Each structure stands twice: as structure tokens, then as C-alpha cells.
Predict the structure.
Amino acid sequence: MEKVIDEEKQGESLVLDQKAGNTKKLFIESYGCQMNFSDSEIVASILYENGYNTTQNLEDADLVLVNTCSIRDKAEQTIRKRLQKYNAVKRDINPNMKVGVLGCMAERLKSQFLEEEKIVDLVVGPDAYKDLPNLLSEVEEGRDAINVILSKDETYGDISPVRLNSNGVNAFVSITRGCDNMCTFCVVPFTRGRERSREPQSIIAEIQDLHDKGFKEVMLLGQNVDSYLWYGGGLKKDFVKATAMEKATSVDFTQLLDQCATLFPKMRFRFSTSNPQDMHIEVIETMAKHHNICNYIHLPVQSGSTRILKEMNRQHTREEYIALVDKIYEIIPDISLSQDIITGFPTETEEDHQDTLSLLEHVKYDFGFMFSYSERPGTMAARKLEDDVPEEVKKRRLSEIVALQQTIALERTQRFLGQEMEVLIERESKRSDQQWSGRNSQNTVVVFPKENYKIGEFVMVKMTDCTSGTLIGKAVGYSELMN
Ligand code: SAH
Ligand code: F3S
């Protein structure tokens, strides 16, 4: 299903098991990327050890935390609206409530937040969550508290995250933090800092724990997972200074993926996000080698025009991207790919836009996330390029891309009809309590009658019908390979 992400719909309040003896109540909600949802689990875990249990009820919370997104202006506006809502609750119902802002907007706006939004007591950037207990003591004593220091080595590898709002089947495990790519439109390198990788042993230990608790699918997370590189800690950019021994024993993404898939053969692995410039063919070969690495890659392209890609500081041309995709299809013919695309980047012409449309035709993505360009203060694009594509042109180009993607998605989903495919059951279908919903390896949602199957089981489903984004089928038995 092609999705134009609507940040307003992404807020989610999260709850975990309660710990006896904890007397304070935390209401935490997350906006934006999967990394934010994963980070909120780390934050809840830290506060869980410091006297807080979570609540789903904003009105009786002692502490409200909102994990924020800065990726587009609209995302920030959504958070501002949420703060107004907290303000109303504090004024009318719960005067003792404290409010903290976490994540990318905290990092971007820093102390400006405390001045602009009087409701906010606490501002904490993505690398400073371990300081939360200290910061909360400050707040309890009546002072505003802030820590937005970005770190060279914080990966939270030693924190075992509590799983919030979990179905007990799927979990996120973060493997890298930050990003060094400096795409000219993107605020992430400023809000999440330089790229660093997490120690492989702590990743494996976290997956082992998930395995022991019955989880069946792990999504390895990073802004740019292909760039994963462990050589004893520290920033990726300092790898050049590593000793010969550190270099010889370093672990890259291919090795990490291979290790995960080998150690946990009955768990499925996915990863996100792949950046074309850092994606190696060895990763694709490792995927082809292991049944339990899903045949799906999120491979953002942003634009089909080489000129625009250059302006965006994406380190590849249209032709190089297409060559990579062709190679991927050659190695794993039934793989599915998804994209991120930005329309109306500064200087984008009608011809550049046509290049993006023709790229979609060539690649045939199963689905995608499409956005119109939103200028972000401080980025290279904001400093060097005028935001010169009129809003209505951005929107028109966006709707043309979304429409074409939808047509292609239907074709792509139809290719599964008649096939028997392995599906991991994840939840009850939203449409019917008689049906399960899960995904095939290619990440397409599959809905089928429950019969006697259970959540967390891998079943073979025969595909009988579909819409552009959902397959409808009937289970024909358990998967032999995964059970
Ligand atoms: N690490 C990922 C992207 C993270 S941001 C990568 O390798 O591409 C997620 C998506 O948001 C990006 O892929 C891009 O399509 C979109 N995005 C980022 N900055 C944007 C901006 N200023 N305006 C519109 N969309 C943007
Ligand atoms: Fe952003 Fe580009 Fe990194 S989109 S997160 S700077 S790969």
C-alpha cells in the first residue's frame, strides 16, 4: 500500500507491564520514525527503574513525555498542537503534571522550547536519555531542565528496552544511531548526531531475550543500516584511526545480518533503512542465503533525476541506482522494494519530475512513502537553495507520483495471486474478528480466516484475491521451515 505518511496519525500512547512499588505515572507518546518508537521503549525502561509506571490516561499522569519528529514542518506543527492539549489538561484537570519534550525537536530547538512553549519543563535530546533521572530531580525542585548534548558513543546498548504496546511477535532492535550522510534536505544529522554502531554482542543478547520471550520477527533499525560498522566503539568517521587489530576484528552489516539469521533460524529478520550509496551486494547475497531474512528492502531514492540527486547530496546517479536495483532483482527475483520520494525539491523542473515518474516505472516498487519538500532550517538546502517550487506544483507532482505508485502497487500485489506464501500472524484483522492479519516475506499485508491458527505462528497461505496493498487468502497449513 502506498502511504503518504500523515504525522498527525502517528501519535500513540504506549503502555507496558507495571512494576510493583513504582508510585509515579508516566504518559509517553511517540511521533515520527520507527527509531523514535524504539527510543521510547528505552526511555520507559530507564524511568521504570526510577519509580515510574506507564499510564494510558493523560489526565492522571505525573509526567508526560512526547518523543518528537522534526523531519518536515508539518510534523513539528503536530507536536505543537499536542502541547496545547497538554496545556489544557494541566490548566483544567491536573495542575501538578510535568511535561517533557524528547527527540529530534528537542535537539533542534533546545532551550528555545522552554521560552516558546511555557508548558514544557524538560527538554531532552536523543543521546541524553540516561540523564533523565537527574533532570527529573531538577524539575521536581521547580527548575526547568535541559540536556541536548550529542554523544560520540551512546548507543544504549546496555539498556534492555521494555516492549511497549507490543503484540509479543514483532520488535525493533536498533543497531546504529545518527547519520553521516548529510543529504542537503535532511535535519537528521543535526538532531541525531554523527553515526555510531552498537556492539554486536549487545544486539545478539537483546535478540536472544526477545527469542526467549517468544518474539518471532526483529526489525534491525538505523538511519543507514548498510553502513553499520563495529570496531570497538566510537564514531564511524573515526574508523580510519582504528588500530590494525580493531580493523581486523571489525563487524560490518553483512556479518551482523548473517550472524543474526544463523543464530536464530526460527526468527525472521527485517532491516531499515538502506541507503543506496552504502548498500553492498554482499548484503543481498546474505539475504538470498537465509530463508529467515525477509525479501524486502526499503531503498529510498528521493528523486529520479541525477541533477536533483546531486543537489540533494545523494552519492549516486539515477543510472547507478537502477544498476543496483537490477542487480538486486537478478539475485533475488521475488524481492519487493519500497521507496521514499520527495517532490518539489528546489530547482526541480518538469523534466526532473518526469525522470522520477519513469524511474518508478522501471523499478516497480511494491509501495512507497512520498512527501512534498519541506525546507528545514539549518540544512544545506535551506542555506544554499531557494525553496522555489510553488506549493501547488509540489502537490500536483506528489499526487501524480502517488497515483502512479498506486497503479504499480496493484500490479505488484497481483503477482502473488495463486501462490502459497509463508505468513507470520501478527494481529487480528482491523476489518473482522474472524480474520488474522500478518505479512509475507515481501512485507505485503495478508488477511485470512483464523481457523485454529494463533498469533505468532508461521503459516502457509494461498493467495486468492487482493487490493493494491492487501492480499486475501486461506491458510493451507504450517510453514515447515519456520516451525
Ligand atoms: N535514513 C533515511 C531517511 C530518513 S528520513 C534515508 O536513507 O533516506 C525519512 C524520509 O523523509 C526521507 O527518506 C525523505 O524522503 C523524507 N524527508 C527527509 N527530509 C525531508 C524534507 N526536508 N522534506 C520532505 N521530506 C523529507
Ligand atoms: Fe537523512 Fe540522508 Fe541520513 S535522508 S537520515 S541524511 S541518509
Summary: Residues 251 and 354 are 41 Å apart (CA to CA). The domain at 170-414 is CATH 3.80.30.20 (pyruvate-formate lyase- activating enzyme). The chain has 15 helices and 22 strands.
